[in-house]
Predict the structure.
Amino acid sequence: MLFRATRCRLRVMNQLISYLMRRDRVGVSLIFVFLLGLGVHDYLGSSVVAQSQNWESSIRKFEDDDKANPPKSGGIVFTGASRIRLWETLVAEMKPLDVINRGFGGSQYTDLNQYAKRIVIAYRPRAVVAYEGDNDLAAGSPKTPEMVASDAREFVKIAHSELPETWIYIMSIKPSYLRWNE
């Protein structure tokens, strides 16, 4: 039944394309270019998401800011993707707790794991709040939920290897309107 319906749709599409080609070669060319553009856009978008980004400049900026205004040891480090980075009222909302915002937008757990020593362990925090996962599972990413869970466990191992008494809170992935279809 499915094959018959597909054959019918293909026949209709072939007839439409034949008609358009006879009638208006420019129109067909425009449709082709448009469809090709959509394909290229989707391909490039998924490739960009799947690639690991270089966060070195962001991490260096944190380190430079720390030299100018050293944070207290023993506070609470908030780290992760844009949900943390864009939380501009974090410090005010967490008063009287000493918190440090070390979010770097667009990051994934693998990025956090790579820089954990410099943006988490360096502060000798009593607690860490991590939010990652949205970008790990975005469209085009090769990661599975199991891989993301494994990366989260790896972050805990990295942090606890040098800070065994530090509490680690992993925030769950929130629903996102931008990625509702994903």
User: Anything to note?
Assistant: Confidence is low (pLDDT under 50) at residues 38-51. The first strand starts at residue 76 and ends at 80.
